[in-house]
Write a structure and sequence with these properties.
It is a multi-pass membrane protein. This protein has 293 residues and is of the alpha+beta class. The protein has eleven helices and four strands; from the N terminus they run αααβαβββααααααα. The chain has a four-stranded mixed beta sheet with strand order 1-2-4-3, sandwiched between helices. A hairpin with a 2-residue loop joins strand 3 (113-119) and strand 4.
Length: 293
């Protein structure tokens, strides 16, 4: 969850900074000099929207290492048997998936794992000490297969494209609404006034939050695909089912407070709309009904 949140937040921050910079440079005024130029606005929106998403993607691996304190393992000199097993398992799974061997890392924390990186052949798979201590080797291997499946599916790149598209709509619609408010509400007939800039800023924040719901929905779908990918790489669905049951069974129906906010428990209402992971029972049911090839 932290990886996805950092990606979205960084992307939105870059988008807002780019938008503000171009506004200061007078690009907004050029677009609205003689009425709203929709073609110029669309080009502007695409540039700002996708630039933020692409920069976030390129920064995803160093950001993940920094935010979790993950220590990358040396594949040629593992310090103990556990590290050697981790590296060997991830490399075997990567070979089966037909991707380059990722960096493998361990970080201190509650049971969790993640994969990230801009390219399939230059990625990172990290696992927490909490997960290593609470699961069997087979269950850990299933989780690692889930993360390798994310890389093989190109999930980070696809997420970037979706984020870029929704960013484009955010930038575009914010300025259309801003122009309308400036003209109709503030009765400004020359250029653009304060009403435009204030409305654009507020709309970018509001539309950005709404766009996050779309990104979260996609993230939940890719978790189902990665679960199925784990079953494929492991040759059976049972290891991933047991790993999910272990996560969801730390207490009946609940996860520890330390990562309850990830939404993996599938709470209802607004929390479910912004959750990056589906409820564990839904993921287990999907795996049980899936056909493993």
């Amino acid at each position: 969850m932290k990886r996805i949140v950092l990606f979205v937040v960084t992307n939105l921050a870059v988008m807002l900074v780019l938008s503000a910079t171009l506004r200061i440079l007078g690009v907004d005024r050029i677009i609205t000099a003689n009425g709203l130029n929709f073609n110029a606005l669309l080009i502007f929106s695409v540039v700002v929207g996708f630039t933020g998403a692409i920069i976030s993607l390129l920064m995803s691996k160093p950001m993940a290492k920094w935010s979790t304190g993950a220590q990358v393992l040396d594949p040629n000199a593992p310090r103990n048997q556990r590290e050697a097993w981790l590296v060997d398992t991830v490399h075997q799974l990567a070979d089966r998936a037909g991707i380059g061997r990722p960096e493998v890392a361990i970080y201190e924390g509650a049971p969790n794992a993640f994969a990230t990186g801009a390219f399939k052949n230059d990625s990172l798979v990290a696992v927490s000490t909490g997960l290593l201590e609470s699961m069997s080797e087979e269950e850990v291997a299933a989780v690692l297969a889930h993360e390798v499946a994310h890389i093989a599916n190109g999930d980070m790149v696809t997420l970037t494209l979706i984020q870029g598209v929704v960013n484009t709509f955010v930038v575009f619609l914010a300025r259309v609404v801003g122009y309308f408010i400036d003209r109709v509400v503030f009765k400004n007939e020359r250029g653009i006034g304060p009403g435009y800039f204030i409305t654009v800023l507020v709309c970018e924040i509001i539309f950005g939050v709404l766009a996050s719901i779309i990104v979260a929905w996609f993230s939940r779908q890719r978790e189902y695909r990665a679960d199925a990918g784990s079953a494929h790489l492991m040759g059976a669905r049972e290891p991933m089912i047991r790993a999910l049951a272990r996560l969801g069974g730390l207490e009946p129906g609940e996860l520890p407070k330390s990562f309850e906010a990830s939404g993996i428990t599938g709470k209802g209402g607004l929390a479910a709309m912004f959750a990056s992971h589906p409820p564990i029972p839904a993921r287990i049911a999907a795996l049980q009904n899936a056909r493993v090839i």
